[in-house]
Amino acid sequence: MQIKWKPLACSITIPLAFGLLVGWLTKDSMDIYEQLNKPAMALPGYAFSAVWLILFVLMGISSYIIYVSTSPEREKAMRLYEINLLLVFIWPIIFFLFQSYFVAFVIAIILWGVAFTMVSMFTQISKFAGWILLPYFIWVTYAAYLNLQILMLNK
User: Fold this and answer.
1) pLDDT per residue over 68-82, tens digit each?
2) CA pair distance 22, 151, nearest whole angstrom
3) Which residues cross the membrane (predicted)?
4) What is the C-alpha to C-alpha distance for residues 44 and 61, in angstroms, rounded to an integer?
5) What is the SS3 assignment for 1?
6) What secondary structure does DSSP assign to 42-98, as a single string?
7) Cα gap 127→133, rounded to integer Å
């Protein structure tokens, strides 16, 4: 497969731009996160940026592979990816800005289902595209767990 550099660059830039925007919108809320009661498995706030950077790049590469595929399922998979990006954008705003941990948890569960379906659908189109989303799916699982624990510990 010959790499189409412009679509690849766009595919990586889109999730990174979403991440930068939501990071900018929620940057003043990280002090609140540090003050929350968190489970022992919680990472420090600064670790999230590094993890998300890697995950956004992997999502971008994976979406590029699907975008340039000739699969009849390509458009459906890309719609699911768009829904995924929207949820990834909304969740931190609800969690950090509005501090609505229950609503954020509901969104996290929906996101978990979308991420699971997206990994499955991407894998059917391209095994590689699906496999490189597994770290993202694991992270969404961890984030949902962390959200639930914060909800329970900060009533």
Assistant:
1) 999 999 999 999 999
2) 21
3) 7-26, 46-68, 80-98, 104-122, 129-148
4) 27
5) coil
6) PPPHHHHHHHHHHHHHHHHHHHHHHHT---TTHHHHHHHHHHHHHHHHHHHIIIIIS
7) 10
Each residue of 113-140: b (16+ CB within 10 Å) or e?
A: ebbeebbebbbebbeebbebbeebbebb
Sequence length of the chain is 155
Question: Which fold is adopted by the domain 5-153?
Answer: Ferritin (1.20.1260)
The C-alpha angle 33, 81, 103, rounded to 5 degrees, equals: 35
Q: Which two tokens mark 102?
A: 């229950």
Q: 63 CB contacts (<8 Å, ≥6 apart)?
A: 11, 14, 15, 78, 81, 129
Give the tens place of pLDDT for each residue, 32-60: 888 999 999 999 878 888 999 999 999 99
Q: Which pLDDT value is given to residue 59? A: 98
Could you tell me if 86 and 52 are in contact, meaning their C-beta atoms sit under 8 angstroms apart?
no
